[in-house]
């Protein structure tokens, strides 16, 4: 009988230890419903295949302010600044967002100058790349070299990220 009591005591102790150890932790691996979340090799499964647990949403990588400074004022300013900007599209800091965001393109009203989230169908990107769907020539029209693809890619990224007024 002593062996039976020791065996039952050992089973109860084991069950208690397993219960307490299963309740430890900070909850970071629990899903929204309180059950264990799916895991990948780096923690909670964020469905992006990375190895750091980050969901990749760290904010925009390109801002409108950067584009104004690095691209628009340098390359587009001669024609799109001042009191009578070409195509009625001012790239001046106070007007740029209102003049490009979700506004129909002057050359082809089937497209928006900036179609948020859709750089391939944004007329500004088409004009910068010399796309076959544009009216007129590739920008810039002032006889200078085309804008480098690296800068066009920045514009496209800004549009892809939602074309925020940032």
Can you give a write-up of this model?
With about 170 residues, the chain is an all-alpha fold. The chain has a domain at about 65-160. The protein has five helices and two strands; from the N terminus they run H-E-E-H-H-H-H. It has helices at about 1-20, 65-80, 95-100, 125-130, 150-160; strands at about 40, 45. A two-stranded antiparallel sheet has the order 1-2. Helix 2 (about 65-80) packs across helix 5 (about 150-160).
Keywords:
166 residues; mainly alpha; two-stranded antiparallel sheet; elongated
Order of helices and strands: HEEHHHH
* Total DSSP helices: 5
Uncertain residue segments: 48-53
- Rg calc: 29 Å
Query: DSSP strand (E) fraction?
Result: under 5%
Mean pLDDT: 80
Distance between the termini: 78 Å
Strand arrangement within the widest β-sheet reads 1-2
Write down how many β-strands occur, each being a DSSP E stretch of 2 or more residues: 2
Largest sheet: 2 strands, antiparallel
Structural class label: mainly alpha
Question: What would the principal axes of the Cα set say about the shape?
Answer: elongated
User: Helix share of residues?
Assistant: 25-40%
Can you lay out the helices and strands and say which pair or pack?
Elements (H helix, E strand, L loop, with lengths): L1 H21 L16 E2 L2 E2 L19 H17 L15 H5 L22 H7 L19 H12 L6
């Amino acid at each position: 009988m002593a062996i039976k009591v020791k065996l039952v005591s050992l089973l109860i102790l084991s069950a208690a230890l397993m219960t307490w150890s299963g309740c430890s932790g900070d909850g970071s691996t629990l899903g929204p419903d309180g059950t264990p979340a799916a895991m990948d090799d780096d923690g909670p499964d964020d469905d992006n295949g990375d190895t750091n647990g980050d969901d990749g949403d760290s904010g925009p990588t390109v801002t409108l302010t950067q584009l104004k400074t690095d691209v628009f004022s340098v390359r587009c300013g001669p024609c799109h600044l001042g009191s009578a900007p070409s195509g009625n599209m001012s790239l001046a800091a106070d007007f740029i967002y209102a003049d490009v965001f979700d506004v129909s393109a002057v050359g082809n009203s089937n497209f928006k100058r900036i179609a948020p989230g859709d750089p391939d169908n944004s007329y500004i990107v088409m004009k910068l790349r010399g796309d076959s769907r544009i009216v007129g020539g590739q920008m810039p029209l002032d006889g200078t070299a085309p804008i480098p693809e690296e800068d066009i890619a920045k514009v496209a990224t800004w549009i892809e990220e939602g074309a925020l007024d940032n």
